[in-house]
Design goal:
Shape: elongated
Number of helices: 17
Strand order of the largest sheet: 3-4-5-2-6-7-1-8
Oligomer: single chain
Strand content: 15-25%
Number of strands: 15
Bound molecules: adenosine-5'-triphosphate, magnesium ion
CATH superfamily of the largest domain: P-loop containing nucleotide triphosphate hydrolases
Length: about 400
Amino acid sequence: MAFSPKQMEILRFPYEDYDALICDGAVRAGKTSVMALSFLLWAMGAYSGQSFALCGRSVGAVERNILAPLMEIRYLKQYFHLAYNRSEHLLRVSRGRRENRFYLFGGKDESSAALIQGITLAGVLLDEVALMPRSFVEQALARCSVEGSKLWFNCNPEHPNHWFRREWILKAEEKRAKHLHFLLEDNPSLDQATREKYHRLYTGVFYQRFILGQWVVSQGRIYDMFDPQIHLYDPQQRPPALHNAGRRTVAVDYGTVNPTVFLDIYDWQDQVYVDGEYRWDSRKEGRQKTDEDYADDMMAFLGRRPCTVLVDPSAASFIQALSRRGVYVLPAQNQVLDGIRRTGVLLRQGRLHICRDCRGLTDELSTYQWDQRAEEDRPVKENDHGPDALRYFVNSLAEWRFA
Ligand SMILES: Nc1ncnc2c1ncn2[C@@H]1O[C@H](COP(=O)(O)OP(=O)(O)OP(=O)(O)O)[C@@H](O)[C@H]1O
Ligand SMILES: [Mg+2]
């Protein structure tokens, strides 16, 4: 493994006069992998019989992003014995009589928040720290009471008002933290073609954050890459096999006073087709529909080909009404920012197609805006019903489809 000069700075950090390390910047820039390696080498060199924490968004994310790559490094296997106990979420690393424990925690896992409270740590690594609840991070930091303990953070940029930027990046000097800013060029394993692929993946605020590594405010159109010429198709042009061969899902954004939207979506050969839309706007129509009315409309919309229906998780009574009719309903995942990023990637890659008949969705995708006055990333809550339903579907897809 050859390292870039920026990565060498990560390897040097434990032997310098700092208490913390902060690596922020572009995606895939080589932050996590080298930080994990440097953390382990430091821990094994400086301590024995101590506990350390490896934290990510979830324990699963730590297993994938930190543990799996670490276990692959041949050099580590030559010098250390690494044993991972999956049920305890515990990695034991030893060399001769020297042994340390590395506990895996997920910032968003409720069990982790409770478990980390009791532990005494000599060091903590927080991967993607800006995506963790602040309360969890503070709890983890408060556990670092062993002499000489160090804090290791990495993340991609978020909104400039984010607490991690305010409390750590802007106060790096005061907190005796070494701050390194990463770009794609700092990862020596990416060739030119791969770097270009990442440049093409994002536009707008996501380009500024994930490629340029800047903490910038989200403003303007959210889906500025949405282009009717590229993304819309006529009903006659739909692939003939779509309805038979595609995996069908109906995604629902539910409203009583606000509009209710159903989207008829097919996932086929790695492409997503939004092939139909139902919309009831009670304000415009001058009449509100009940859950039973909407359930009737859903049965008609589904026709003879039943499928999974993803519903806005807050619509509990409508979910029940559908379940009573034997519809297979799943509550949707509602992560707004992640869903927007993923939808943007599909649009950029030309893998999201929308039937011209879906007028409501098409209009809303063109006008969907960031709320520039908000203190965090937030879309303007107007004419967002189609984009919300679409996001519920996109959030149900596996992450590898967006990398
Ligand atoms: N010096 C290196 N030699 C070989 N492979 C490397 C090196 N640095 C990074 N990589 C590989 O590049 C990929 C991206 O690196 P890594 O996951 O560390 O980036 P990151 O900055 O944490 O990205 P993200 O912000 O997306 O989490 C990984 O597969 C990693 O193993
Ligand atoms: Mg990373």
